[in-house]
Specification:
By secondary structure, this protein is mainly beta. Helices cover 8% and strands 70% of the residues.
């Protein structure tokens, strides 16, 4: 009898935390590291100078919808208030080009390992990035973007958990150089950023 009771007690925590890949909404906050885009002059010639996106805090939300035993369809939106800087090299101070809002809107797939209290996960997403300089004369612009992510979910019970995540961002920056009223050069460059974040999972 004691052995049976002991076995039941051992199974209780696993049963209490066991869950599939269900619906989850997760407000998140984190830190996004410096990203860069190569700068060109008016003739489309690479100048060896980099346009930097400064590091700083971010916040957002993810919404996960179950589509299989361990698979989820994930919708993500987040925001970073940062600034552009022109980097001419280690011996020259950076030039501040002004503040900018950077927003990502993504949809992707997430795969969850396990159905217990601690669940590692990984996935990828595609969508757009919206770059909005805080200058009245410069409009916001949308760019094709994608991410890769991975981390771990730690559930305190069936409905509440902690999501710890690392995410890498890629955003296509398609730049055109106009000369004499027509486009003479076109360059495809990319903005890369990395991020670490934490979020509170609300699951059902």
């Amino acid at each position: 009898m004691r052995k049976l009771l002991f076995a039941i007690l051992l199974l209780v925590p696993g049963t209490a935390f066991a869950q599939g890949a269900g619906f989850e909404i997760t407000p998140t906050a984190g830190y996004r590291f410096t990203g860069s885009v190569t700068a060109y002059d008016n003739e489309g010639v690479r100048q060896g100078r980099d346009l930097k996106v400064d590091s700083g805090g971010m916040y957002g939300v993810t919404f996960d919808v179950p589509i299989g035993y361990r698979w989820q369809l994930e919708f993500m939106a987040n925001h970073q208030s940062t600034s552009f800087q022109l980097d001419r090299g280690i011996f020259t101070p950076r030039t501040d080009l002004g503040d900018v809002d950077l927003d990502y809107y993504q949809v992707g797939l997430a795969y969850n390992w396990g159905r217990g209290q601690v669940n590692p996960f990984f996935g990828g997403s595609v969508g757009i990035s919206n770059i909005k300089p805080k200058l009245s004369a410069v409009p916001s612009d949308n760019h094709f973007a994608g991410t890769l992510f991975g981390g771990v979910k730690v559930f305190f019970n069936r409905n509440v958990g902690l999501r710890l995540e690392a995410r890498g961002y890629w955003s296509n920056i398609d730049t055109g150089i106009n000369t004499g009223g027509h486009q003479s050069n076109r360059n495809n460059e990319a903005l890369y950023q990395g991020e670490g974040s934490a979020g509170l999972i609300l699951a059902w």
